[in-house]
Amino acid sequence: MANRKKNVSVSFRVTPEAADVIHQKATESGLTLSEYLTGCALGKEIVNLTELAAFTKELKAQGTNLNRLAVLANMGKIQAVNVEQTLELYRQIHAEVRKLNERRRR
């Protein structure tokens, strides 16, 4: 859609309340109003990941800490017990986050 020439205007009337909601949803989605309405009208799934940004940041920080613990364990400076379960949980979370990001890109 981004490479196509947009030279046709489509307009419609809504109540002020509906207009506020539409504008709010477009803003929350991170899309322009035109992109948001076009996506909705064409049946595309609009995935809002704004709340996921803080979660992803925290998850990365925890992953960094886990990696540091693994390095110390490999050096013999600490003993880690049952890190495999934690690592598997992080893999599952990472896979779900990637799925959400893929849905957003469609």
Task: Give a quick set of tags describing it.
single chain, 106 residues, 2 domains, 67% helix, 0% strand
How would you explain this protein's 3D organization?
It is a single chain. The protein has about 110 residues and is an all-alpha fold. It has two domains: about 1-45; about 50-105. The chain is built from four helices and no strands. The protein has helices spanning about 15-30, 35-40, 50-75, 85-105. Helix 1 (about 15-30) packs across helix 2. It is elongated. The chain starts with 15 loop residues before the first helix and ends with a helix. The mean pLDDT is about 80.
Task: Describe the SSE topology.
Layout: H1 16-29, H2 33-41, H3 50-74, H4 83-105
Work out the helicity level: 55-70%
Point out poorly predicted stretches: none
Radius of gyration: 21 Å
Outline, from the CA principal axes?
A: elongated
Mean of all residue-level pLDDT scores: 82
**Strand percentage, roughly?**
under 5%
**How many strand elements?**
0
| Biggest β-sheet description | none
**Total number of domains:** 2
List the total number of helices.
4
User: In terms of structural class, how would the helical and strand content be classed?
Assistant: mainly alpha
Terminal-residue CA separation:
11 Å
H and E order: HHHH
Summary, kept brief:
The chain is mainly alpha-helical and 106 residues long. It contains 4 helices and no strands.
